[in-house]
Structure formats: structure tokens, C-alpha cells
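Entry type: protein chain
Record version: 2
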Amino acid sequence: MRPAKPLALLAGAAALAAAAALRHAVGRPLCFCVYYGNVGAGVERWLRGCRVAVLAPTLPRGVLAGLRAAGVEAFGYVSATTLGGWEPWAGLAPRSVILGNASTGWGERVVDACSPAWARVLRRAVEMLAGKGYRGVFLDNLDMADRYPWMRPCVARLVRSVKKWAPGMMVMVNRGFSLLPEIAGSIDYLLFEDFATYYDPRTGSYRVFPATDLEWEKRVLDEAATLAERNGFRVLLLAYAPPGGHALLERICREWRSWGRGLPLYVAPGLLQAPGVCNPCGSG
């Protein structure tokens, strides 16, 4: 999950109003949001209803100060293993760290997570976020360690280094399930992206996982929840559905009530550039 390159799509007033109304009607604890679009006045008001927000790393200091004053914990996006070229720190990465195309559908390139040069870039990214006023760092693309197993210990080491680079900053990781036993003591949140559904950026379509994949997700979530209880981090669930996709939302809620363990849930449109809905499924 990463910001679309332009970061320019702004949700309409009707979508904002609908999302806010549903969120407040449900009234579930720990509303968290993932949003990579521009932040105008209407969106900022919506974000103030989120306790935890994963946001693009390009927000102005004033917006971050306003969110922090409202009690929002803002996490800035950083990819631990890829580079899209749009990031504020992209120009710091030497060509030597690039391994090739990521083939993720987002136009990214894979970087060598074991390179000391990449560790320096990542450290600078974390320091930039801390300096701007983000409360934490959101580390994406940890699953690349499964595609490049030789990078596995290096990716884990980068995750464990964040709080050394920026004391006081919180850490949220996206998936990276195979690494969890190695990093569980160094994170504050685990985002379980693609809970029950996923979005395909190549086709712009939303899909429910087949039964075999859902069974795998159930096992992984059980294991993650056990590690969370032992190590003190929280698990958050992110599912995808289009605006007005009531049938898909009903399916997400059915799966959540069955095996979602009552965990905080955010249902978002695919590009994450319009507001979604937190905790839309009731009390479970």
C-alpha cells in the first residue's frame, strides 16, 4: 500500500459527509484512517475524528500541528524496501541501491535493504518525519523480504533501528508477517492490509480473496494476535471496498464478525485518496 504518485485526488463534500456520519453513528473505539490525498479544510476536519492516521509524508507542518492538537497520532509513510521517486528523500538514494522494478503495479523500484547507503536514506527519512511533527513512522513493503529472502535479516534490522534513529517516534508496520517474531518488540502497531478483500491497481477492481487465501489470513491473524498480546503492540485491519459498494462491505463485515477478533477495522477506497470508514461493522 503506497501513495499514488500525484497525491492530488480530493474527495467531494458528499463523500466526506457520508463517511463522517457513518463513523460517528457506529461509535467504535480507536478509529484509525489511512489517507494519502491532499488535506484541505474539509478533509482535515474528517481526519480529526481519527485517533490514528497513516498519511503521506508530504503534509505541511501546520496541518500536522493541527492534527496533533486534536489528539491525532499521525504516521508518515515510508517504504522500507522500495522507492517510487516522489518521496522527499528519493534524491538521496544512490543508483547503486536500486535492484530493479518492483512489479507491484505502482511504478516502484526495489532497493537493496542490506546496503548501508539505503540505511542512511531510511534514517534520513525517519528524521525528516520526526522533524516535521509526525508522531510515528509507517513502514510499508516489508513483504519484499519474502520475495528476496537474503534481505530478510536486513529488513528486520531496519525496523528495529527506527526508534534508535528517532527516540520517541512510534512504529507501525504493514504486514511483514514472516518477520513479526523478529520485530514484535520494536513496533507499536501492525496494519493487516487486505483483510478479506484487496484492490488491484492494474485493473481498478476490488476482489474478495478465495477461500484458501482467507483460511491463510485467519491463521496469520491468530498468530499476529498472539504476538501482539505478548509484546504489547496493536493490530489494525484494513479492507478495501469502493464507495457505495454495499455488497462488498457486507461481506467484509461478515468475515470480520467471524474471525476479525473484534479488532479496529478501516474500509477504504482503493487508491486511499478519498475518506473511508472506520469500524463500520458494529460491535461484532
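Comment: The radius of gyration is 18 Å.
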